[in-house]
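JOB MANIFEST
job_type = single_chain_structure
chain_count = 1
residues = 402
[input]
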Amino acid sequence: MRIKAALYNADHLEYGLVTIPFPIPQDQYNDTIKMLEALDIGDPRAKDCMVKEIEGCVPSLKCLEGHRINVDELDYLVKRLDSFSDGELAQFQGMAAKMGLSDMTDLINLTFCCQQATVITDFSDLEQIGRDHYMNLHGGCVSTEELEELDSMETALLLISENEGTVTPYGVVYDNGMQLSRIYQGRNFPEYLYEESLMTVSLRSIHDSDDSREAVWLYLPTSERQIERMLWRDGMESEDFATLEIQINNLPAAVETACPLEQESVFDLNAMCAAISKLAQADRAKLEAVVAYANPESAAEIRRLAENLDLFDFVPNVHTPGEYGRYMIQDSGHFDYDSNLDAFYDYEKYGQQRIQQEQGIFTERGYIAYQGTLSLDELMRKEPAEQYQREQDESMGMGGLS
């Protein structure tokens, strides 16, 4: 689902108009906020973006036209709607129209409860209407046996005959006694994982004594700007004023246990996740072997390893000197292997020789050896640009001596 919102500063019409896609693509978040700030709007908490026009496949959101909105609230709302089925979207739009909602807080809260309502968009299939209505009344959790025993046509007829529906542009709406939820209080967004992430982080202010208030939920990797804005929404001066809890989603297992991640800075965790997210699945397996080899002690060190995987030789699924020797002679491409001489190759001896020379080790993932010019400690403690420049300088120096 994609919508576009044309936004402007109602106090300075001369600044012009900017059209923003929602949900905001993660790699465009920083640039989007910069565009809004150029119009002196886009505050993390204020509803300072006036909506001129909404375009897209959720016509009910045109209720926002002519209203001031908060850009992150609209982003969260559209992310919620993006996960909805056609039926859920009809429920949301029908109830929004029936209740006359145009406030962003109410619209976000409606996404958490609109599934209780019944919206009929097609009266030609009474049995389907009856089944859908019965499911709505029971929170969507109904056994197959219950549905088989249900007289769905009678259920539909009772609904239509005994209840007064509200006609909306999105269907005939029966609210079934639904009450608008109050999950979102207008500050921190309720937990909601929109797209795949490596780690979920929740932050709570050390000064907050209200356990009922939502934590700041972050899904890493994300932009640093978004982290800063979410902290600002909560009223935290910085992450130093927060307690942190983490939930691992898709991190490589060796990374998860390499160091106490819950003691790390959320910005260091984010940078680590950003580096890992760029790796293909095969390289993530390689990273596990590298982590076992290098024994990093922080998220920052893991990040630098992830950014420098090309400095390591990795042979997956090899766990003994003999297997490594066989790989090198038969499969590495370094030798012209002759199967007729197979009985004369001492794979284990050659493997041991290579391992000693390379100072490699065997891990659960396979064989790993470091080939960089810096020591491992230096590699893990230097920024990649610094490390690259030093290796270039050393290479040029060696070339001048030869």
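[summary]
The CA atoms of residues 79 and 194 lie 6 Å apart.
The two ends are 61 Å apart (CA to CA).
exit_status = 0
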